[in-house]
Amino acid sequence: MADPKIGVYGLGTMGSALALNMAEKGIDIAVSNVTPDLIEAFVPRAEADGLTDRVTTAPDLAALVQALPRPRLLLAMIPSTGPIDEMLGQVIPMLDEGDTVIDAGNADFHDTRRRAVQLAEHGLNFVGLGVSGGEAGARKGPSMMFGGAQASWDGLKPILEPIAARFGDAPCVARLGPDGAGHFVKTVHNGIEYADMQMIAETTDLLRGGLGMSAEKVADVLEHWNDGALGSYLVEITAEVLRYADPHGSGPMVDAILDKAGQKGTGRWTAIEAVTLGQSATMIEGAVAARAWSSEKPLREATGAAFGSARLNLAVEPDDLEAALLAARVIEYAQGFRILEAASKEYDWSLDHAAIAETWRAGCIIRAKMLGDIATAFHEGIAADRLFLAPAFADVFAVGIPALRRVVAAAVTAGYPLPVLSAALGFWDTMRQPSGTANVIQAQRDFFGYHGFDRVDGKDARHGPWWD
Ligand SMILES: NC(=O)c1ccc[n+]([C@@H]2O[C@H](COP(=O)([O-])OP(=O)(O)OC[C@H]3O[C@@H](n4cnc5c(N)ncnc54)[C@H](OP(=O)(O)O)[C@@H]3O)[C@@H](O)[C@H]2O)c1
Ligand SMILES: O=C(O)[C@H](O)[C@@H](O)[C@H](O)[C@H](O)COP(=O)(O)O
């Protein structure tokens, strides 16, 4: 058996899939896990795929480090909170100058920046690798967002490119910047994922609850949309899940699922970073809020009992829903790239937004046809804070905004909650106002707090007459 090129620590859902992907692409690997069960479970899977010759199993972290030739490449696919710090505490003394540790989990980029500094103090490299695509993506080709030194990228590229998803011939992996840049881009990816999932759920509710369609019929509609400009992994899988019947009951499987959404944090982190960077991403915030509110089912039941939960007849056209969702999706990506641009400036990352869009074209959860147009728009020079002004989307908005307005108006009138679709319209109508309402805010702030304001005419009088 040849020397392993890389070690994989953590053989859970993602780690085991990524390891098999590497072995399948001809990369010799060593693997281990904190508990032996997942190591034992991994071996027969490697055997079943005919990959045993590529795999060295190690009983624990120390043996895994020993199994790796120097300079070592050690990839961890474990929870990126406490467990990664625990692991680093154990492994740093075992490693030698020039070795590299890769955190491929969903880490908070602040932690990644801190860990990069920590390892550098020991002459070690730390890479924050955002990995997207779920289990299937990890196994057959994920999208990967690399944050770390150029030298680390040069060393890992021969491993990451062969295992990555491909859009045409292009591998969906790129070095996006130093230290936390990769994990930050992955976090925003997940924020957009939250907003897209919520928008599709809101639209499904309008089609089922509002237009009385069966789950099967909605699946037909989404499948049709997926053949068009809305083509994307999330529209595709929503159509698929709507077709499943409940094996333990009767009716559609989705109706057997409790309407309380989980969240592990990346959406929340995106919203927090956006606000901190002065880039409020209302669609992502709306999606995070919708998940949080969904967990308060008893309160929703009590409020419905107290004030009625009935919804009125909904008068919308399915074509309007399609056009509205498409326009809202452009705004959702635009809000995402505004956060990325703000962070790029704040942390001096010089993010290449076209490369980010290209990395998201295949393998990841938010992969969508639209990402091709987005990448082209950036190559053609659109600024990252105004993707919605790209000529490629002018027609989308010409049709989609009036449709979105009709959909939101009808839904609001009929009592259908649209935290994310309505946020899209709120953003659009705010950004297209040359003169907004902030003058009143400035007057109020000055009135109660002497905060001052700038005058339209530029005159040097920063406080109102209420102070005279
Ligand atoms: N699932 C996804 O769709 C997905 C996609 C992209 C990224 N991610 C990220 O990938 C990482 C792994 O997720 P997963 O879905 O593979 O989770 P998972 O199936 O729950 O596996 C977690 C892995 O971490 C190990 N582990 C847990 N606590 C540990 C500790 N204190 N020290 C060392 N190892 C520990 C587990 O080993 P034991 O089971 O033996 O404890 C297991 O190997 C997470 O950061 C997650 O956010 C997940
Ligand atoms: O890109 C991906 O492969 C997914 O986004 C992945 O990272 C994971 O499934 C989410 O983090 C789940 O997040 P929630 O549990 O917060 O929905």
Automatic annotation (TrEMBL):
One of its GO terms (biological process) is pentose-phosphate shunt. Substrate binds at residues 106, 132-134, 189-190, 194, 264, 291, 445, 451. It comes from the Bacteria. Residues 182-467 form the 6-phosphogluconate dehydrogenase C-terminal domain. InterPro entries: 6-PGluconate_DH-like_C_sf (IPR008927), 6PGD_dom2 (IPR013328), 6PGDH_C (IPR006114), 6PGDH_Gnd/GntZ (IPR006113), 6PGDH_NADP-bd (IPR006115), 6PGdom_BS (IPR006184), NAD(P)-bd_dom_sf (IPR036291), Pgluconate_DH (IPR006183). Keywords: Gluconate utilization, NADP, Oxidoreductase, Pentose shunt. It catalyses: 6-phospho-D-gluconate + NADP(+) = D-ribulose 5-phosphate + CO2 + NADPH. Its EC number is 1.1.1.44. Pathway: Carbohydrate degradation; pentose phosphate pathway; D-ribulose 5-phosphate from D-glucose 6-phosphate (oxidative stage): step 3/3. GO terms for molecular function: NADP binding; phosphogluconate dehydrogenase (decarboxylating) activity. Belongs to the 6-phosphogluconate dehydrogenase family. PANTHER family: 6-PHOSPHOGLUCONATE DEHYDROGENASE. This is 6-phosphogluconate dehydrogenase, decarboxylating.
